[in-house]
Amino acid sequence: MPPRRPADHDDRRASAPHVRPGEPRPALSGLWLRGALVVTEPERRRPGFADILIRDGMIEAVGKIDPARAGDAETIDLTGEIVIPGFVQAHVHLAQTPFRGLAEGLELLPWLATRVLPLEAAHDPQTLYAAARLGIAELLLGGCTTILDFGSVNHYSVVFQAAREMGIRFVGGNTMMDAGQNVPKAIRQTKDAALATSIELFGRWHGAAQGRLRYAVTPRFLLSCSEALLRESLALAREHDLLWHTHLAEQQAEVAAVRKATGMASADYLDTLDAAGTRMAFAHAVHLLEGEKRQLADWRAGVLHCPRANSKLASGRAPVPEYRRMGLAVGLGSDGSACNNKLDMFEEMRAAGALQDLAHGPAALPSAALFTMATIDGARAIGLGGEVGAIEPGRRADLVVLDLTGAPFVSAAEPLETIVHAGDARAVKRVMIDGRWVVKEGRLLTADPDEVAAEAARAAAILKERVFV
Ligand SMILES: [Zn+2]
């Protein structure tokens, strides 16, 4: 039986924040992409050759386009190339990008306590900005056009700043933590301070860059937040129609600790905090009871599946095929560089497939399902399903041009299979966001990659010294 199409709850969510007056319009007002093979929403349609007309950052038309309609739009011949929607990286921690390789061989709770939280506490605005730029550069060069970032407690404005400058579509928020064990003093706030930080960032960044930047309310996980903070953060998200994004049921030890502290399963506990009616997206959701799964479906929550991180931290296998059959929107995320250690959506697609293949056989998550999770379902899961994730009129022009004609991609296989099972960042030739090229001929246009790498290397050395030396 084909999976039920996830509910279009996100279309209800799709009200873009008001575009701020005085901000410049997208750089291109008319672009006619000709002759490419378009791969989009492969569970619903076959790949096919089509032209794409783009104006004012939006996809205006897809298919055979009359030259009279294209008018004086700039023409780009993409014969022999493939156009896909930009990938949606649905769960990432940009703050952790320079922690790569510094937190190996640990399960979640000791991984947090001994490595990740001390490193996050050591960030200053300069190291955090360098971390964000490195992560965004890697994501753009790998074909990601939208990200949902799980932030830092302090200095988070610099991450929004990096996203604005580098042109990526960005949803994110400061991490909230006012409780729990092993939280360094520097990143443990009071409830009121955590909420005040959120309100300040929301006011400053939500809707900036023509609506390309969005604010999300992001308490870290149930064990690091007081009941009052969880309840009030949910209310804050509902009041402003914001996404509420947290980690849920990632590991058994965490689930047991939640039960010990609250006497309840994770989703049941959230239900007592008036979560219903809030737009929610949960990273992981590996260890949910049957009733909790139904609760997530009732809430129409998004699930953000991180297969490589779940493998590396030995968290377990989320029941992704079951979630999809239940109608939940399941997106894909890399999680942080401290538990992955790459930010690569091609690899996440393959890892998601492999995890289920091992348990359920090779048809558990076909290529079309994996591609859908990396694009339109990721968009749905984070509340942008009406705006991005597919190539069709009325959506933002967030596209990736792939070149699969050279080594190591040459293949007689179906293009979709090649993208999913053989693709990598070397195939990414161009990336467009809001109708503007941010990558051309495999080169980043919105920052100097050498400078980004050098700054990030400096930041990594500083953080390592602050925490471990
Ligand atoms: Zn995470």
Q: Looking at CATH, which topology of one domain would you report? A: TIM Barrel
The secondary-structure class comes to: alpha/beta
H/I helix tally: 17
User: Would you identify the regions where 5 or more consecutive residues have pLDDT less than 50?
Assistant: 1-19, 24-28
Main sheet?
10 strands, parallel
Cα-atom Rg, whole angstroms? 21 Å
Characterise this structure:
The protein is globular. Helix 6 (191-205) runs parallel beside helix 7 (227-240) and helix 14 (367-374) crosses helix 16. The protein starts with 8 loop residues before the first helix and ends with a helix. The strands form two sheets. Strands 6, 7, 8, 9, 10, 11, 12, 13, 14 and 15 form a ten-stranded parallel sheet that branches. The protein is built from 17 helices and 19 strands. By secondary structure, the chain is α/β, with parallel strands linked by helices. It has helices spanning 9-13, 67-70, 108-121, 125-141, 157-166, 191-205, 227-240, 252-262, 266-271, 290-299, 307-312, 320-325, 345-360, 367-374, 376-381, 415-422, 449-468; strands at 31-38, 48-55, 58-63, 74-77, 82-85, 87-93, 144-150, 169-173, 175-176, 213-219, 243-248, 279-284, 302-305, 329-332, 335-336, 399-402, 428-433, 436-440, 443-444. It has a domain at 87-381: Alpha-Beta Barrel (TIM Barrel), CATH 3.20.20.140. The structure holds zinc ion.
Question: What characteristics describe this protein?
Answer:
469 residues, alpha/beta, TIM Barrel, ten-stranded parallel beta sheet, nine-stranded mixed beta sheet, 17 helices, 19 strands, 38% helix, 21% strand, disordered N terminus, binds zinc ion
